[in-house]
Amino acid sequence: MKNKYTPLVSVKKNIYQRSERMLQDANLTLKNAYAALEESLAQLQNIQQPQSGSMSQFLSSRELFDTQRALISHNKEWVAYAKETLREAQERLKRDMIEYEKFKYLELQLNQERLKAEKIQDAKDLDEIALMTRKRDKKERVA
Question: CA-based diameter of the chain, in Å?
């Protein structure tokens, strides 16, 4: 049954579904950030430090280590940002779910009140029909 809350329930459901998609995207971003961090840590372990050679080789090796450490730092910041985004998406989903459930409940309550009023009206109509039939039967018996 449609009532004044039906359009609001539809809108709140769309917002709730959008929040679910945002949470899924945030989970995927966090997973990608962790994968990038693990990969950069593994690459750092695979870098070989020269044991002998020219100064330029040592300097290039040092630069390679510094670059890899900067990449690891960047990936750690990405993981922290992704965690924060995930937390915010979870909070938003929770708020949107509460709003959706609230309006869904109000819609259900209004529908139940309407059904109850219709049942009462139907009972009154049936009683009136029964009274009219009873009066007509009495008139037919008398005549």
Answer: 131
The domain 6-112 having CATH identifier 1.10.287: the answer here is yes
Structure tokens at 133: 């039939």
Tell me the two tokens of residue 131: 């009274």
DSSP notation for 28-86: HHHHHHHHHHHHHHHHHHHPPPPSSS-HHHHHHHHHHHHHHHHHHHHHHHHHHHHHHHH
Task: Give residue-wise pLDDT tens across range 20-49.
Answer: 999 999 999 999 999 999 999 999 888 888
Return the closest-CA partner of residue 8 out of 98, 107, 96: 107
Residue ranges per structural domain of the chain: 6-112
Reported as a single tens digit per residue, the pLDDT across 96-109 is 999 999 999 999 99
Cα 42 to Cα 37, 71, 72, 83, distances in angstroms: 9, 12, 10, 22
